[in-house]
Amino acid sequence: MKVTRMMWYAGTIFTTTLGLLAVSVNVAAQQLASTGYARSASAPKDSVRADRNRAANLKAFRGVARRLNTTPEALQSAFERARETNPKLSRGNFIAANVLADNLGARRPNVTTAAILAGLQNGNSLGQTLQSLGLDKQEVKDARRAADRRIKDGNQRVKDEDRRARSAERAREADRKQREREGPGASR
Question: Inter-axis angle of helices 91-104 and 137-182, to 10 degrees?
Fold first, then answer.
């Protein structure tokens, strides 16, 4: 009888301990579910960095977006979707793929942004991808040069517009300060 009572007591303690453990695990799981997921102490910095990168990408897409008759936001969202399928895709390769497809698409219908991105995802370079799409080495070289010029020109136009806007803003600010110094009764 004594052994039976000891086994019952040990079983009760064991069951109670397992129950408490299960409750604490359940509470921890609920807390993680309510916060989304566990984050490290550097997570807020990472989210700020991600926002900063998105803003920089959006600004960088302005020049080429105008050249491609689209918006920077549309290019950025397309870039983020492409990065989901190919994490190694750089912004420069993405822009080059879009510009090359735009430049070559009229003469060569098989050269599309999707085809170029698929080639890059397979580990090929831009040149190898274009050659696999039917261009010879000289055509690839010429197409890359034309795309680079178009990208550079678009970026330069955006820089020039920004410079003019800053200059106009400084001029308006200087004019406003001049009017404040002259006072309300001064005539022009």
Answer: 110
> Whole-structure pTM over 0.90, yes or no?
no
Q: Is the torsion defined by CA of 121, 122, 124, 130 positive or negative?
A: negative
In contact, 139 and 46? CB cutoff 8 Å? no
Q: Residue 40: what pLDDT?
A: 46
* DSSP state letters, 92-110: HHHHHHHHHHHHHTTT-TT
How large is the C-alpha radius of gyration of the chain?
Answer: 31
CA 65 centroid distance within chain: 15
d(CA 175, CA 168): 10
Tell me how far apart the alpha carbons of residues 94 and 19 are, in angstroms, rounded to a whole number: 54
Closest CA relative to residue 81, chosen from 127, 121, 36? 121
Burial class (CB in 10 A: 0-12, 13-18, 19+), 22: exposed
Q: Which residue has the tokens 């566990």?
A: 38
User: Is 54 a residue whose pLDDT tops 90?
Assistant: no
> What does each C-alpha distance from 188 to 79, 166, 168 come to in angstroms?
53, 25, 21
